[in-house]
Specification:
8 helices; flat; about 85% helix; single chain; about 220 residues; DUF3826; DUF3826 domain-containing protein; signal; coiled coil; 2 domains
């Protein structure tokens, strides 16, 4: 092998190593940014609780671990789905396998959710746990409920309960995802369900919501 070829190979090896270092550094920055983000989010959540500093520190640790576990479960799901796309050409088989991945994901995230609430219940009252839930989901549930009541002021008690229960369920699901985008999508999904039920009961939605938005 001549000198020119050796130099060419060495340059390719150097470029390859530089690429590896770049990717590694980018991943390190991404992890660091995520840790900083969830640390800030956890601090903001516990700051609203009327508990002593020692308990705040413990609750913050519980919340932090919850975010970390959510991210791990989501990452595992996404990696498995991506692998299926690359390894299974048949669309029907890929769909079946993807459904299996999603089923396992839902079981894991549901267990994580229940374990998380169990840990919180050992340190917080029910109303304080609701505070944590609302803080984790950016107060979307109480704000959306208040908006519905303000928008449709002639709702009966059964309709109000229906709206409240749907938004509570939306919040439980929104707690289990790691990004703002997917949290808001859970609430959007349940707002759609609520609107469909109200419409089926003869409540006019379009003009009422447009008038309310102009207020």
């Amino acid at each position: 092998m001549d000198v020119f070829m050796l130099k060419k190979i060495n340059k390719l090896q150097l470029l390859f190593l530089m690429c590896i270092c770049f990717v590694a550094n980018a991943q390190q920055h991404e992890v660091k940014d995520y840790i900083n983000d969830i640390d800030e989010r956890a601090s903001a959540i516990v700051s609203q609780l009327d508990i002593n500093d020692a308990d705040k520190k413990e609750i913050k640790g519980i919340v932090l671990k919850q975010y970390v576990h959510i991210e791990k479960i989501e990452a595992k799901r996404d990696a498995q789905l991506e692998k299926l796309k690359k390894t299974i050409a048949d669309q029907e088989k890929q769909k079946i396998k993807s459904e299996e991945v999603w089923t396992k994901y839902k079981v894991s995230i549901s267990k994580l959710h229940d374990d998380y609430l169990d840990k919180l219940s050992k340190k917080l009252t029910e109303s304080q746990i609701v505070q944590v839930k609302d803080a984790m989901t950016y107060q979307v549930m109480p704000k959306t409920y208040a908006n519905f009541l303000d928008m449709f002021q002639n709702l009966n008690e059964e309709q109000k309960k229906m709206i409240y229960d749907h938004l509570v369920e939306a919040r439980e699901n929104a707690m289990n995802v790691g990004t703002h985008k997917w949290q808001f999508q859970w609430f959007a999904k349940y707002r759609g369900k609520i609107n469909n039920i109200l419409a089926s009961q003869g409540i006019e939605l379009h003009h009422t919501s447009k008038a309310w938005e102009k207020k």
